[in-house]
Amino acid sequence: MVQHLSRLTLSHFRSHTRIALDLDARPVAIFGPNGAGKTNLIEAVSLFSPGRGLRRASAQDMVRRPESLGWKVTGLLRDGDSAHDLAFLSDHGAARQVSVDGKPAPQVHLARLVRVLWLIPAMDRLWIEAPEGRRRFLDRMTLSFFPDHADHSLTYEKAMRERNRLLRDEVRDGHWYAALENQMAQSGALLTANRRAALDRLAQAQDGAETQFPAATLSLLEGEAPLPEAAADLRAALADHRGRDMMAGRTLLGPHRADLAGVFAAKGVAAQDCSTGEQKALLISLILANARALAAETGTPPLLLLDEVAAHLDASRRAALYDEICALGAQAWMTGTGPELFMDLGARAQYLEVTEREGQSVVENRRL
Ligand SMILES: Nc1ncnc2c1ncn2[C@@H]1O[C@H](COP(=O)(O)OP(=O)(O)O)[C@@H](O)[C@H]1O
Ligand SMILES: [Mg+2]
User: Fold this and answer.
1) Strands (DSSP E) along the chain, which ranges?
2) Is residue 80 classed exposed, middle or buried when 0-12, 13-18 and 19+ CB atoms within 10 A define those classes?
3) Is the pLDDT score of 258 beyond 90?
4) Boundaries of each AAA+ ATPase domain copy (predicted)?
């Protein structure tokens, strides 16, 4: 049975004052004018995954203004016979608190319960912008396969911040570095191994898949040379790099510097040189491949959040996308300005219309 949200409530979350939605496992097509609150709605769903959500916003930014009281999002996550009550809340913009079945839980725990993948318009420029966005995209896909990826990232980042502080303070005494570099090496080797394994799975999922979207050949760029596989070797490399890192005032070597290269496989053209439409198609293709791989591995496709995904697709591509999503069986939350964008979905989807009335978003169930 497909994992999906069967209920979603938002309270004082951005433009939404109070909404409660009952849903089934079908894709959710959301339409309404610009600024109505569609992206805000799927942003709330993106909080079901560890991290800052699809806008990378702080809990403070999500507080509904002008009241600025705090916000709450809840969801009932169904998967066959099992169900989990998830709740997220921020009191007056304080850091988000997570609870699972009524008990407080660390955010990273979410990665074990639910997978969420998204595409948003800001990612249209992913292939041509800075490595950070591609790295984040890669890590989100990696996290979907390996829930421990979030834990390793946290450990790595924390140790690296401390090491960077030593570097900036020009601390030269080696034993201050050793423990931090050991932590970075242990977690960093796991990050790299996870990323490589995720890319293998994506490649497999694209191989011979029946899809209208072009396959992307992905490779991991890890700096001047591939990063060492073994933690001990990474530790030695970090120790070796101290001098250069001190001159730079930060750590120059390690998985935090990795980048993702993509090639439009059938044409042999680098993703950054593809047309805008092709670049988008490659991202859609990867999200679908990721979802297929997860469905095969875990028995259920992930939740998909596809913001304005129909906008850049011609009618036949759009129909193909809908067919592939329905074949996957994913609860895909898709937004668009008008209902006509979703016509091809027909009874295969459920529909929500979002409008703005008197400064708040109103969400209504619709039939097409
Ligand atoms: N914290 C907030 N409190 C109240 N309104 C907000 C907040 N953050 C964003 N908004 C409003 O939400 C609206 C944008 O919603 P969005 O979901 O992006 O629209 P769209 O339907 O175009 O996707 C804007 O009118 C914006 O002013
Ligand atoms: Mg939007």
Assistant:
1) 4-13, 16-22, 28-31, 70-79, 82-91, 97-100, 103-105, 116-119, 216-221, 259-264, 269-270, 303-306, 332-336, 350-357, 360-366
2) exposed
3) yes
4) 24-359
Which CATH architecture best describes the domain 127-273?
Answer: Up-down Bundle (1.20)
Task: Evaluate: CB of 38 within 6 angstroms of ligand 1.
Answer: yes
Query: Residue 341 and residue 336: Cα distance in Å, rounded?
Result: 7
Task: Report whether residue 63 contacts ligand 1, using a CB cutoff of 6 Å.
Answer: yes
Q: How many helices (H) and strands (E) does the chain have?
A: 10, 15
The pLDDT of 84-91, averaged and rounded, is 97
Give the rounded percent of residues in the chain with a pLDDT score beyond 70: 100
Q: Which 8-state DSSP code applies to residue 63?
A: B
Domain range list for the chain: 127-273
Q: What is the mean pLDDT of residues 167-183?
A: 96
What pLDDT score was predicted for residue 33? 98
Tell me how far CA of residue 49 lies from CA of 56, 133, 212, 303, 319, in angstroms.
Answer: 12, 17, 28, 10, 28
Nearest to 141, CA basis, from 98, 199, 193: 199
Q: Whose CA is nearest to atom 13 of ligand 1?
A: 35
Residues 6+ apart with CB under 8 A from 232: 185
Are 195 and 255 in contact by the 8 Å Cβ rule? The answer is yes
Global confidence as pTM: 0.97
Q: Is the pLDDT of residue 22 over 90?
A: yes
- Quickly state the pLDDT bin for 344 (edges 50, 70, 90): very high
Q: Which helix (H) or strand (E) holds 281?
A: helix 276-298
* Residue 235, ligand 1, Cβ within 6 A: no
